[in-house]
């Protein structure tokens, strides 16, 4: 499945996208941010393999994010923790090259993923999670129109073994029309 928006195209993650994703992650050295789980260049192949293995098991649907104008890869995003029965998904494991921050690319990719989740999959809710200390991510999720559900204290361990508090946000299906309108308005201002 490929999702095409105004600014970005979300295409299925594939091993042959490795070099473009390594170039994207080097833009801003995002793996050095201690409160995120962005793969380092030398770990990109393993991360692609990990996400594709989760896809095989049905718990993740990973995408590479490509700018429509230049065709350049800028990052990754996923549907994760997929519950096909409810149905419900979490949008997460997202990172974009530093030069794409503030460009509208994140809003466009979230619009694509949310539209598909609510309007095609029929999800009653879509979830987002982030590290308590990742203020940039928390602010971006709130700007989408997601509401904070709570904080899971000592929820998981980071790659260096430190316990992290996880902030949980969600958008409910009855909130989706207002969220969609807000995202479409933000993107239209870029035209």
TrEMBL record:
Record Gene3D superfamilies: 3.40.630.30
Superkingdom field: Bacteria
The keyword Transferase is annotated on this UniProt entry: yes
Alphabetically ordered keywords of this record: Transferase
Ranges where the N-acetyltransferase domain occurs: 8-147
Coiled-coil spans in chain: none
InterPro entries named among the record's database cross-references: Acyl_CoA_acyltransferase (IPR016181), GNAT_dom (IPR000182)
GO molecular function annotations of the record: acyltransferase activity, transferring groups other than amino-acyl groups
Name of this chain's protein: Protein N-acetyltransferase, RimJ/RimL family
């Amino acid at each position: 499945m490929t999702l095409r928006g105004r600014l970005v195209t979300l295409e299925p993650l594939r091993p042959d996208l490795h070099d473009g994703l390594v170039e994207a992650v080097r833009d801003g050295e995002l793996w050095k941010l201690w409160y995120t789980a962005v793969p380092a260049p030398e770990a990109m192949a393993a991360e692609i393999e990990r996400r594709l293995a989760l896809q095989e098991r049905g718990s993740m649907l990973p995408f590479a994010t490509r700018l429509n104008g230049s065709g350049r890869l800028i990052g990754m995003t996923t549907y994760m923790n997929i519950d096909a029965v409810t149905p419900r998904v979490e949008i997460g494991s997202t990172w974009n090259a530093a030069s794409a921050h503030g460009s509208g690319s994140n809003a466009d990719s979230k619009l694509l993923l949310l539209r598909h989740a609510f309007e095609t999959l029929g999800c009653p809710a879509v979830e987002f999670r982030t590290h308590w200390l990742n203020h940039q991510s928390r602010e971006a999720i709130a700007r989408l129109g997601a509401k904070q559900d709570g904080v899971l204290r000592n929820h998981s361990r980071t790659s260096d073994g430190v316990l992290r508090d996880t902030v949980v946000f969600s958008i409910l299906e009855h909130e989706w029309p207002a969220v969609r309108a807000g995202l479409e308005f933000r993107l239209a201002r870029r035209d």
